[in-house]
Write a structure and sequence with these properties.
By secondary structure, the chain is mostly beta strands. The chain is built from two helices and eleven strands.
């Protein structure tokens, strides 16, 4: 038994990855945006959300420590025209006065290699929380002193709008909504 403990301790001391700490990032709100697109009335409609806040934690030695939490204020939503913007913020869809934020919280981030990740998590819209999977790529910038000072995360997923109780105009508007996420985050050095 003593030999097994000695081997385990030696392995932990000699493995440099076992000591790697999580890298913490704060989302750069001015540099981050969420895009929505869907088919409606025979064409493609778009909307954009800004004002995104949140944090990212990445641990190269233990992917179970990786996490992303993002809060998106619905009031920042801007669609292709004023009427659509009003409708999307109203009780017909997002109901911004009653539910001011959309929240994504990851449950697991799995590295796929070559800067690609699969992010599992839950998306809370209005009073509904559903599991989602994001296909993501990450770019690292300003690598100094073995710390990544800035990262860019690009992710995409599709959801069913009716799953979040946004099922108005089903004869004219497709149920599938594509979400494209462009996050810029800066090292925060504080857990």
């Amino acid at each position: 038994m003593t030999r097994a403990v000695s081997i385990l301790v030696a392995g932990l001391l000699l493995n440099p990855l076992s000591h790697a700490a999580s890298l913490y990032y704060t989302i750069s709100t001015p540099d981050t945006a969420i895009g929505l697109s869907w088919h409606a009335f025979g064409g493609i409609s778009h909307a954009k959300l800004t004002g995104v806040t949140g944090e990212v934690a990445l641990n190269p030695a233990n992917e179970m420590d990786n996490r992303v939490k993002v809060t998106i204020p619905v009031t920042t939503l801007i669609a292709s025209n004023n009427l659509l913007t009003y409708q999307l913020k109203s009780s017909m869809f997002f109901d911004a006065p009653r539910y001011p934020n959309i929240v994504f919280t990851s449950t697991r981030i799995v590295a796929q290699g070559n800067g690609n990740f699969r992010i599992f998590g839950s998306l809370s819209v209005k009073d509904v929380q559903r599991p989602v999977i994001l296909e993501a790529t990450m770019e690292e910038h300003d690598r100094t002193a073995q710390r990544d000072e800035r990262i860019a995360l690009h992710a995409m997923t599709t959801i069913s709008r009716s799953a979040y109780h946004m099922d108005r105009f089903t004869a004219l508007v497709d149920d599938t909504v594509t979400i494209k996420i462009d996050i810029q985050a800066e090292a925060s050095h504080v857990p």
